[in-house]
């Protein structure tokens, strides 16, 4: 459940908020000599200004592949440019409509995380039910009560992260 919450927070970080953030490029895969490679393994990412990100590749031959991978990445809406040494990404201002689209996207990611937590709950509940003969009904009931509390705690953590990301997205 903890990993589901962490995965949700990482997913939220990949949604842009108007500021350039290296975490937004966390899931960008670059076709590097025929192999999909994470951008962080191919380049250094720097954030010199609030809306600008500078990507310095370790191998200059990967420059155009990095630029193409960023351009093809859905939900970023950026147009990178390269000067032969670095790739510069300037984030355009978010329109109100685009912000609302991102809020919907984040809500979908939050729901996916909640479903993962509930799936884990269902799995553990089935395991507890299978142990009913060995440990007794009282212990199973106590375990289910603890499991419900744990599930609620993790769903609340996801909801709190969602509220924070929504506020960040809608902030002008």
TrEMBL record:
Sorted UniProt keywords: Cytoplasm, Protein biosynthesis
Question: Primary place of residence?
Answer: cytoplasm
Q: Where does the UniProt annotation locate this protein?
A: Cytoplasm
Bilayer-spanning residue ranges:
none
**Protein biosynthesis: present as a keyword of the record?**
yes
| All copies of domain Ribosome recycling factor, residue ranges | 9-170
Q: Does the keyword Protein biosynthesis apply?
A: yes
What role does this protein play?
Answer: Responsible for the release of ribosomes from messenger RNA at the termination of protein biosynthesis. May increase the efficiency of translation by recycling ribosomes from one round of translation to another.
UniProt family annotation: Belongs to the RRF family.
Listed PANTHER family? MITOCHONDRIAL RIBOSOME RECYCLING FACTOR PSEUDO 1, RIBOSOME RECYCLING FACTOR
HAMAP family per record: RRF (MF_00040)
- Protein name per its UniProtKB record: Ribosome-recycling factor
List the source organism: Microbacterium nanhaiense
């Amino acid at each position: 459940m903890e990993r589901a919450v962490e995965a949700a927070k990482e997913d939220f970080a990949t949604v842009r908020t108007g500021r350039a953030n290296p975490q937004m490029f966390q899931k960008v895969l670059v076709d590097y000599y025929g192999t999909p490679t994470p951008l962080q393994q191919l380049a250094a990412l720097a954030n010199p200004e609030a809306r600008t990100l500078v990507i310095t590749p370790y191998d200059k031959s990967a420059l155009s592949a990095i630029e193409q991978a960023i351009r093809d990445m859905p939900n970023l809406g950026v147009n990178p440019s390269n000067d032969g040494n670095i790739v510069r990404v300037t984030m355009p201002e978010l329109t109100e409509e685009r912000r609302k689209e991102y809020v919907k996207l984040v809500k979908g990611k939050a729901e996916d995380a909640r479903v993962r937590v509930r799936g884990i709950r269902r799995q553990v509940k089935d395991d507890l039910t299978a142990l009913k003969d060995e440990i007794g009904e009282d212990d199973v009931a106590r375990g289910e009560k603890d499991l419900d509390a744990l599930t609620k705690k993790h769903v609340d953590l996801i909801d709190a992260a969602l509220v924070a990301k929504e506020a960040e997205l809608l902030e002008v």
